[in-house]
Amino acid sequence: MTNTTGGKSMRSILLIASILFMATAATATGSALSIQRSVFVETTQADGIALEPANTLSRGDRVVLVMQWDGGKPARPFTLASRVPETLSYQRSGDDRVEVSVDGGRRWGQLGELRQGQRAAQPDEVTNLRWRIGTNDSSGMRSFSAIVR
């Protein structure tokens, strides 16, 4: 006899772990950055929508993935890049200047500019994201939202 509840719980734990350890890279000449990743799930509250740390995830959950680096303005420009886990369907970034790829990072551009054959690429086809971080950027983080497939 199989315990499906335990199976679902284990899949949720593995899903969260794979999202937390998704390929995120930052490159800056001559410096190393410490990047922390967090996953939050959207929940409906009486006064609106709230974000809570993701403990378990289910198909259809709306999540926000946050990548934070050491605070303060960077000494040099760098590129922050992230793969979108296959278990997620990309929705949007918290920064409109994000560049996306729908082919594993071979071609980059704004979502409205990229094509899949004869048609415009769709958000759920995004495979990779990257942000170019300048020395005047003091936010120390980038985020994107997705839906669990």
List the helices and strands and how they pair.
Layout: H1 4-20, E1 24-27, E2 35-45, E3 48-53, E4 62-69, E5 78-83, E6 88-93, E7 99-101, E8 115-116, E9 119-120, E10 128-133, E11 141-148
N→C terminal distance = 27 Å
Order of helices and strands: HEEEEEEEEEEE
Helix content: 10-25%
Tell me the fraction of residues in β-strands, as a range. Answer: 35-45%
Largest sheet: 5 strands, antiparallel
The count of strands amounts to: 11
Placed side by side, the strands forming the largest sheet appear as 3-2-4-11-6
Number of helices: 1
Radius of gyration: 17 Å
Q: Uncertain regions: pLDDT < 50 for 5+ in a row?
A: 1-5
Q: Which class do the helix and strand fractions yield?
A: mainly beta
Mean pLDDT over the residues: 84
Shape: globular
Would you give an account of this structure?
The longest helix is centred in the first third of the chain and has 17 residues, at 4-20. The strands form three sheets. A five-stranded antiparallel sheet has the order 3-2-4-11-6, covered by helices on one side. It has a four-stranded antiparallel sheet with strand order 1-5-10-7, with no helix packed on it. By secondary structure, it is mostly beta strands. β8 and β9 (119-120) form a beta hairpin. The protein has one helix at 4-20; strands spanning 24-27, 35-45, 48-53, 62-69, 78-83, 88-93, 99-101, 115-116, 119-120, 128-133, 141-148.
